[in-house]
Structures are given as structure tokens and as C-alpha cells.
Q: What sequence folds into this?
């Protein structure tokens, strides 16, 4: 048997999480397709959903999803042929695990608004809202300040008896 020169062209596979998200076959010249992978942060698995991205790595997408309060990652895989045409698209949803720290931390803003003159302010802490309301009502007799709480989950809602709770 004669043994000629053997040419082995390995397939380049980049492990997920290594910082590179595109897997390309080194045998592209031979007519093989390659796969592009990118990540999106999304709020649900429904057809009508909010998506944010794209990101090169899962870590980047996961970090942004947690910032936005999204519960899912979406991994897009595009199979591309030798003429750069997309042959197939795969979508893979990954649900993020809710840690105790992220479920306890609720982003909340307090809004105070005078019902008489319309002057308003935004506060991070309840005591700040109470101080603003006290000063405003002291400086403007017969004005009434209302308090609103805003969260991502519930939106903006009025806290009706907030003066009674603070007293």
C-alpha cells in the first residue's frame, strides 16, 4: 500500500464561554457550512416578546438580562452555507435561575406630587419623600402632596393613606 500525504482539516470548535461565539468549519472551501451563534436577553418565550442584544457571549447576555429584569436568554444558531446564505435558524430559550439576591432586590422609586400646584419630585427612600412633602406643605398652606410607588412589576400606583402609615 502506498501512503501518500494525508491532509486532515480539523473542524474548529470554540468552546462556549471562551469569549468567542462563532463556530466556523475550517473545511469551508470543501463546501461545508458553518454555524454562527449569538445571544439575546428576552423577557418571555412568547412570540411577542422583548429582546435585547445581540451579545457575543452567554455571560454578557445573562448580565444584561439580570439588569433589565428579564428571565430568559435566547440563543440563535445560524447555519450558513458556502455562499454566505442562511440555511437554517435555531432558537434555544434558556430560563435563568432566580437567585435569592435578585428576587429580594426590587427596583423601586417613590414619586411625590402636589395635587394643588403639580410640583413633583422623585425619591429613593421613603424618608426623603416624607421630608419633601412636609417642606412643600409647610411652604404652601392648603396644598396636599400625594405619594406614588413605581416598580417594574406593578408600574406606578398611588399609596393612598401614606400619611397615616408614616405618623
A:
Amino acid at each position: 500500500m502506498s501512503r501518500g500525504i494525508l491532509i486532515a482539516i480539523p473542524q474548529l470548535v470554540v468552546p462556549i464561554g471562551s469569549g468567542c461565539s462563532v463556530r466556523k468549519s475550517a473545511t469551508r472551501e470543501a463546501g461545508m457550512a458553518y454555524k454562527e451563534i449569538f445571544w439575546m436577553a428576552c423577557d418571555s418565550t412568547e412570540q411577542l416578546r422583548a429582546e435585547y442584544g445581540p451579545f457575543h457571549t452567554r455571560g454578557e447576555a445573562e448580565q444584561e438580562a439580570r439588569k433589565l429584569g428579564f428571565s430568559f436568554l435566547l440563543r440563535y444558531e445560524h447555519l450558513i452555507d458556502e455562499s454566505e446564505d442562511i440555511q437554517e435558524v435555531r432558537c434555544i430559550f434558556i430560563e435563568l435561575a432566580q437567585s435569592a439576591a435578585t428576587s429580594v432586590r426590587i427596583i423601586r422609586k417613590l414619586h411625590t406630587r402636589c395635587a394643588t400646584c403639580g410640583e413633583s419630585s422623585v425619591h429613593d427612600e421613603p424618608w426623603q419623600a416624607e421630608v419633601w412633602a412636609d417642606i412643600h406643605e409647610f411652604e404652601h398652606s392648603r396644598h396636599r402632596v400625594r405619594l406614588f410607588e413605581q416598580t417594574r412589576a406593578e408600574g406606578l400606583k398611588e399609596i393612598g393613606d401614606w400619611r397615616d402609615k408614616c405618623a
Residues 1-29, 100-104 have pLDDT under 50 and may be disordered.
